[in-house]
């Protein structure tokens, strides 16, 4: 879209975007993971670059190729802890954070430093998990008045109720509510609604991740514009 490019709505802005899934290693050869392809995060990074932003892309496991641009810095991470630490540093000097990553909510209580052997386990293997840090919630709680924080809400049921809870509890400026009850993972298509503080919920009519990403970037630019004093 030429007009989108021409307007350079994010010129001079620094945007941190997370993409893909984080993993929780069990032993040197195994991990717990999720079905994220990273397509939405990459589409957001591309749209932000086209809009003139400087982008820091913090990527977990992704199944698509990264954009190549002098305005893009990519930081690859594996675990939620690593993503948390990279986001914390990047967010300090950023105008906005978009948490499109599918962040692993739990990780093993004990990482086993050697390959888990069947002969040591018998016919049942118990794995105890503990919660990982909630990156979005932490960033929402430390953001400055001029910083915009966007999260996603992946839900299979009670979409709006759960998404609006996330908007409040994580102190996000915007939540992109995503119905993942059928065929979103790895797909080029998606269907979302946008929830914002003190604004009515907006139904996004676009249906491809690329078009939805552009729409989200326009909303982020508007939000940043409204913070100007
Ligand atoms: N998120 C995060 N850190 C986590 C978990 C999630 O930053 N440890 C972010 C995601 O990137 C997303 C938002 O929080 O932007 C919501 O993620 P989601 O998985 O939908 O919600 P959770 O808060 O993890 O709750 P649940 O999975 O139980 O629905
Ligand atoms: Ca989660």
Automatic annotation (TrEMBL):
Necessary cofactors: Mg(2+); FMN
EC code(s) of this entry: 4.1.1.36, 6.3.2.5
Similarity field: In the C-terminal section; belongs to the PPC synthetase family. In the N-terminal section; belongs to the HFCD (homo-oligomeric flavin containing Cys decarboxylase) superfamily.
Reaction catalyzed: N-[(R)-4-phosphopantothenoyl]-L-cysteine + H(+) = (R)-4'-phosphopantetheine + CO2; (R)-4'-phosphopantothenate + L-cysteine + CTP = N-[(R)-4-phosphopantothenoyl]-L-cysteine + CMP + diphosphate + H(+)
A cellular component annotation (GO) from this entry: phosphopantothenoylcysteine decarboxylase complex
Name under which the protein is recorded: Coenzyme A biosynthesis bifunctional protein CoaBC
Residues involved in CTP binding: 105, 115, 133-136, 152, 166, 170
Keyword Magnesium listed: yes
Residues of the full protein shown: 179 to 407 of 409
GO-annotated biological processes: coenzyme A biosynthetic process; pantothenate catabolic process
Keywords of this entry: Decarboxylase, Flavoprotein, FMN, Ligase, Lyase, Magnesium, Metal-binding, Multifunctional enzyme
Taxonomic source organism: Lactobacillus gasseri (strain ATCC 33323 / DSM 20243 / BCRC 14619 / CIP 102991 / JCM 1131 / KCTC 3163 / NCIMB 11718 / NCTC 13722 / AM63)
A GO term for molecular function: metal ion binding
Purpose of the protein: Catalyzes two sequential steps in the biosynthesis of coenzyme A. In the first step cysteine is conjugated to 4'-phosphopantothenate to form 4-phosphopantothenoylcysteine. In the second step the latter compound is decarboxylated to form 4'-phosphopantotheine. Catalyzes two steps in the biosynthesis of coenzyme A. In the first step cysteine is conjugated to 4'-phosphopantothenate to form 4-phosphopantothenoylcysteine, in the latter compound is decarboxylated to form 4'-phosphopantotheine.
Cofactor note: Binds 1 FMN per subunit.
Pathway: Cofactor biosynthesis; coenzyme A biosynthesis; CoA from (R)-pantothenate: step 3/5; Cofactor biosynthesis; coenzyme A biosynthesis; CoA from (R)-pantothenate: step 2/5
Domain DNA/pantothenate metabolism flavoprotein C-terminal: 10-222
The keyword Magnesium is annotated on this UniProt entry: yes
């Amino acid at each position: 879209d030429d007009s989108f490019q021409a307007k350079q709505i994010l010129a001079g802005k620094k945007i941190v975007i997370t993409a893909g899934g984080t993993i929780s290693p069990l032993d040197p050869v195994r991990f717990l993971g999720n079905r994220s392809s990273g397509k939405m995060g990459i589409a957001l990074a591309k749209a932000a670059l086209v809009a003139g932003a400087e982008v820091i892309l913090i990527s977990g496991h992704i199944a698509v190729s990264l954009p190549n641009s002098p305005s893009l810095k990519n930081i690859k991470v594996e675990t939620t802890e690593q993503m948390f630490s990279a986001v914390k540093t990047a967010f300090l000097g950023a105008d906005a954070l978009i948490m499109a990553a599918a962040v692993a909510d739990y990780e093993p209580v004990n990482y086993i430093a050697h390959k888990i052997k069947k002969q040591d386990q018998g016919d049942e293997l118990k794995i105890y998990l503990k919660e990982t840090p909630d990156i979005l919630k932490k960033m929402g709680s430390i953001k400055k008045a001029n910083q915009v924080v966007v999260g996603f809400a992946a839900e299979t049921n009670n979409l709006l109720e759960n998404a609006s809870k996330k908007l409040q509890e994580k102190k996000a400026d915007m939540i992109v509510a995503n119905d993942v009850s059928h065929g979103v993972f790895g797909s080029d298509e998606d269907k979302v609604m946008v929830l914002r503080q003190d604004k009515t919920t907006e139904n996004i009519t676009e249906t491809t991740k690329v078009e939805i990403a552009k729409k989200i970037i326009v909303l982020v630019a508007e939000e940043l514009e409204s913070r100007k004093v």
